[in-house]
Amino acid sequence: MPQNHVLTTFRVVIWGPHFIILYNESCCDIIGDKHPAALGRPPTVAFAELWPMVLPMVSAAYHHGKPTKVEKMELHFSRREDVAVSTSATAQTAPPY
After folding, report:
1. Which stretch of 9-23, 63-77, 80-94 has the lowest confidence by average pLDDT?
2. Residue 36: cis peptide before it, omega within 30 degrees of 0
3. CA distances (Å), origin 20, targets 50, 58, 82
4. Of 13, 20, 67, 93, which has fewest CB within 10 angstroms of its CB?
């Protein structure tokens, strides 16, 4: 990772049983030319190269309600360089009505 880097706050929501990806504008620089095609797509299509690393964390939150946190996970997007992110996964459920 380059010595001079900018710390940005990006948010990703992985929604529903097909894990549809939603993200904020801060993600656009990180994902590069995958934007806008990745928006609204499942990660197996949009980020097939990263999904095996992220799946255990997302699956634990989604299927078992187990929150997880990873510090400095190195992700390599098909673009400039590796990106180290600290991330967490927490299951969110809709309130019963």
Report:
1. 80-94
2. yes
3. 15, 12, 23
4. 93
HEC per residue, the chain: CCCCCCCCCCCEEEECCCCEEEECCCHHHHHHHHCCCCCCCCHHHHCCCCHHHHHHHHHHHHHHCCCEEEEEEEEECCCCCEEEEEEEECCCCCCCC
Residue ranges per domain, the chain?
12-89
- Span 37-79, pLDDT tens digits: 999 999 999 999 889 988 998 888 888 888 888 888 887 765 5
pTM of the model: 0.74
Alpha carbon 55 to its chain's center: 10
